[in-house]
Amino acid sequence: MSWLQPTPFEQDLVSDVRRRWPEIVPLARLLSLATRIEPLLLRNARLQFIPGSATEIESLLWFSPLIGARSSGEVILHAGVARLLANELRAADQPPFDQVSDFTRRHSRHWSPEDRLEQDLRLAALLDDQPAIEQGLQDMLKRIHDEADEEQRIRLARWSRRSLATIAGAGSTLAEARLLTQYASCSLGASSSLAAGNAAAPATLPGWLNGKLPEPFRPARLAVSLHWDADSRRLVLHCRAASAGEPAIELPTPLPVNLHVQCEGAPSGTWQVVGADTRVALPLIAERILLTTSDGRRYELLAELPTEVAPGAPPSTTTALYLSHLPADREQASRIADWLATQGIALQLIEEESLSTAAATEGDQDGPIRLLRLWTRAAQAYWAEKTGSDALPGPRAALLRTEALAAPPPGQGAERLLDLLDWQQPEKSEEARNFLGQLRAWLADEQPPPAPDVDKLGERSEGGEGGEGGGEAEALLAELADPKTPPPRRLEIGDRLDEIGDPRRGVGVREFVLADAAPRPAEPAAETLPPEVHQLLDELERIETIPPRRLAIGDRLAEIGDPRAGVGLDERGLPALDWVDIPGGEFIYQNGEKRRLPTFRMARYPITNVQYQAFIDAGGYNGKGASAWWRDLKQAKAEQSSWSQANRPRSDVNWYEAVAFSRWLSAQLGYEVRLPSEEEWERATRGRDGREYPWGKDYRTGYSNINEKELKAGEWSLQQTTAVGVYPHAASAEGVLDLAGNVWEWCLDKYDRPGQIEADTSGERRVARGGAWDCDPGDARGSRRDGDGPVYRDSSWGFRLISSAPIA
Known about the structure:
This protein is α+β, with helices and mostly antiparallel strands. The strands form 7 sheets. Strands 12-11-13-14-15 form a 5-stranded parallel beta sheet. Strands 5-3-4-8 form a 4-stranded antiparallel beta sheet, with no helix packed on it. Strands 7-6-9-10 form a 4-stranded antiparallel beta sheet. α9 (about 150-165) packs across α10 (about 175-190). The longest helix is centred in the N-terminal third of the chain and has 18 residues, at about 150-165. The chain is globular and about 85 Å long.
């Protein structure tokens, strides 16, 4: 659970609850130190610290908006809500803070050692108790070293990644924190917090920890190259997934990964998260670039620079740039400064109270001083208390607004207001790209050019080629290619191209490219996605997003084009399945029986409507060669899915149809795909440890699309399927989604004779697993078996595929 400062949303949430249900806030404050709240902890906290209070406030808190996650056995406060209330608890005289923290520890003694340690680290971070943080991290390193089971070490790596966010900036400079973060990155892949507060590249993990790394999981290869961007006059590092036989950096985990980048002549480098197609603008012009992977392997790249370019120079302006902030915003300012450095904009951090020093030294600089002032809630409160003029007499200033606040009044030393609300993930944000353009224009004293004369847009070049508008179209396209063309002008150019005939490839003509090569991944690079798609996908990742909103997000993605890998079709028009490795070995089956399975792969999602429609369109029921798909099966006639959205699971298919689909797709892909056996399905759902649900022991409300009202397990019942994968927080141990709820999933086995998986027309019942949208939490358990005749169809039945064959 993250222990970062509360977001504006969380601050507003607490304010709203104070107004509507003030009686529950004192109880929530008492429970803010617990990473999770169980009924006994809730009851005893009320009885001990608020004697005489009404019992009803327990249920009011349990179902209040302050709760970010809820199950039948526990609730979890929103992360920022817990931090805000903990700060209030610490500042209050009664009850004593130490008394509440001791009470919380006593009531969590039955938790696992890792859960207790996470809670202790969170408390130590709140108190800025460095020795306690250091000791806790040392304990975790010892746990990893002493653990013999690889699956358990992977679990500890996941714990480390989660818990390092708990201490935020409080312990991030400790050697133990860097080792744990590096271990997690080498085990699991990219971490946005790798070496937080440390710009230095890592050495190889010490032998005692390196020997505890798990076996490489789907290792990747990264091709890297350098090129000179003449327009921006910057050196750009291009990282992409390497093709077969191409020289590349060998990586122990799938993309994206962490990569440390340092330019020759720079005192330190920066950590980057790079994926299948990532470009990084370097902060210095250098002939040599040093790249270091998270496991300490180093590579050197040589750049070929134009003869007129001198190495060692920064690509940005020589203007001295400061970012001023209040002490409460130090961490935020540091992260923004680190990101701007990767974009070639170097600045110095300075606290508001030290601005007089910056103003006094302006005359000593080689160039002018510019100042960015962070505009946050803390800054707003700070300026509200100031008297007199707020203007800074020296440097020129702009306000950098990072929270959804009203613009400040004039006279606060700001000649421009810049917005960067997505400062926590700027690499994925369209707003961040716009901010960079505005910032560079301000530093260069540029203003947008005046709007062009509309009449001139209508002029046609005489003798131009291509018919009406041919010469004009060329001129307009050249203007579009100029990065200095402002957005209003681009809008007019686009409309004019529509009038005269837009000649660009792929705009007015639907084009198809047929090739024998393997298709590219179905999911486009993040930077190509529209802002709305980014917003919707980010909203799905937030645990507080309620099921009705998840339903709406899925349907909106279906309308505008769902870009997620594994949901749609590839360039050949075939289902593009997103395979997830399920490692082989021993696992717990049903009521504690230990069984073994070899490694296999499972599709991340059930087969969707658009994927099944490809089978129908290809003549899967009655086309040429269709008889091969229906061998030893009862031929069926296609029926419509009860819900037609392209990204929803295909329902209303019987067992025979699911088998026929898998045979057809195997022939198209060149390797076998099939329905899972119920052993394979249960291993993927329950992990090695035999958990009841993909995410753990108990059902949690809002974690799957089922009828929670049936057993009073929660308040949600959507009464229909949702798009696949809209509950990402409910993933299995390996990352498979929708294994609990949405649709029942056919398996190969006969229900009354498990293990008999051959196709026949006997009509014996076949197994289905996982529960569906109309089922209660009991049906969604990973051990629950159900089944029906192979001709049975229903709006709550679908299927997914696995493969144990090598996949190219």
